[in-house]
Amino acid sequence: MLPTLLDEKEVDKEWLELILEARNLGITVDEIKDFLKDPSNT
Q1: CA proximity to 1, closest of 25, 31, 37
Q2: Which residues are CB-neighbours of 13 under 8 A, at least 6 positions away?
Q3: Helices 29-37 & 13-24 angle (0-180, nearest 10)
Q4: What are phi and psi of 28, to 5 degrees?
Q5: pLDDT number for residue 11
Q6: For residues 27, 5, 41 and 35, what is the CA-based torsion angle, rounded to 10 degrees?
Q7: How far apart, in whole angstroms, are the C-alpha atoms of residue 16 and residue 22?
Q8: CB atoms within 10 A of CB 11
Q9: Where are the strands (E) in the chain, listed by range?
Q10: Is a pLDDT exceeding 60 seen at residue 8?
Q11: CA 23, CA 42: separation in Å to the nearest integer?
Q12: In terms of residue numbers, what domain contains 17?
C-alpha cells in the first residue's frame, strides 16, 4: 500500500518518516487513517 501512496501523491518528508516509524512499531496504514479520522483525537 505504501508504494502506491508514494506513486500517486506527493508525501511530505516528515509524514513519510512518521508513517515508516509507525510501520516499524507494527501500526498499519489503516490504523493510522482510522486514528486521523476519529474526531476524538483532535
Answers
A1: 31
A2: none
A3: 120
A4: -85, 160
A5: 65
A6: -40
A7: 10
A8: 13
A9: none
A10: no
A11: 22
A12: 2-41
Instruction: Identify the three-state secondary structure at position 28.
Output: coil
pLDDT of residue 4: 58
Residue 1 confidence (pLDDT)? 52
Tell me the pLDDT of the chain averaged across its residues.
Answer: 79
CA distance 16 to 14: 5
CA 41 to each of CA 6, 15, 22, 30: distance values in angstroms, whole numbers, following the listed order: 25, 17, 17, 15
CA 13 – CA 18 distance, rounded (Å): 9
Q: Would you say 32 and 19 are in contact if contact means Cβ atoms under 8 Å apart?
A: yes
Q: How many domains does the chain have?
A: 1
